[in-house]
C-alpha cells in the first residue's frame, strides 16, 4: 500500500513551477483561451447532466465528438487551440470520476452523482493545461499553441524535457501568472548512514521519533497568525455587500489580504515539513512511518490544533522526500500502536486514555513516554531492528509495506 501522495509523484513525475512575465497582448490571448476552455467545461457539465437524466453515459469519447461539432459551428471557438480544449474534457472526466469516488465513500444519495459544477465568469481562476504537442521551449521562451510566447523566469534548471505544462493565474496578485512543468522524477541518492528511525504522529508534537534529536515540535504557525486573520475577518464582515449587490473595492481588498495571510501560513507549514523531512532522510537509510489518517481529528475537540499541525502534509513531504533520495520508507498500520510495548511486544488489556502520557508495560516493566513507545512499536512492526536508531543497519523487512 502506497502513501496518498500526488498522482505525479505516484507515476514517477515531479512538478517544477516558475514565474512568468506576460505582456498585455499575451495576457489578453491567455484570458481569451481560458474563456473558450471555460465554455467547453460548462458545455461538458450541461451535456453530462442531460445524459444522466435519461440514464445514458457521457464519457470523454462522446464529449470529444461533441467538441468537433462545437468547433465546426462556433468560429470563435475554432480560433483557439484544440489542445487545451481537449485537455479540458480530460480534466472534466477526471474531476467527475474523483467526485463519484468521494460520494460513494460518504454513502451519499445525491441525485446527480459526482457531477462537477459550472465555472462562472469572474469566479473561476484561469488555468490552461498543455500536453507535449501544445507547447515548446525555445531560447528561454515558452511558446504555446495559438501563437503565444511567454517569458519564463528560470529560477532553476529543468532536470529533463517536460511532458506537459500548466499555465495559471495567481488569484492573489503576486506575479500574475505562473507555469508548472511536469518532468520525470530523478532520484538523488544520498550517502548511506546505516541507521533506521521510527516515527509516530501526534498533535502536541507533530512527529515523535525513536531519535530525540529528530522530533518535530508543533510550530503553531496558525495560532501565531490568528490575530491578523481575525482582523481581516472583521474587515470582511464590516464591508460585506448586501445580497444581490456587487462587492465593493474595500471588501475585495480585505478578502485578498485574508487570502494572503492564509497562504503565508500554508507556506510556513510546508517549509517546516520539508526541512524536517530532509533532515530525517539525510540521517537515516530506513524510515518506518505510521500510516496515520488524521481526517477523524476534524470532528474532535483537537480539530483546530490538528489542522494547524498539518500532519497529512508533513507525512506526505516525508514520504516524497524519502522516495526522491532513494531511501527505504515503510508505512505501518496504526492499529494498537499505543497499546503495544515497544520493548517486548506485549499488548495492554485496556486502551490508554489521552491524559495518560507515560506508557508502562506490565510484562517487562518498561516505562517511557507514550509517543516514544509508539515510535518504537512502528519501528519494530516495519521489520527494522530496534537498535537501528542507534546505528545498527536495518534488517530484512517483515511487516512494513514499502511506500
UniProtKB/TrEMBL annotation:
Residues 316-376 form the Cas12f1-like TNB domain. GO terms for molecular function: DNA binding. Keywords: DNA recombination, DNA-binding, Transposition. One of its GO terms (biological process) is transposition. This is Putative transposase. Residues 188-292 form the Probable transposase IS891/IS1136/IS1341 domain. Residues 257-267 have a biased composition (Basic residues). In the C-terminal section; belongs to the transposase 35 family. Residues 238-271 are annotated as: Disordered.
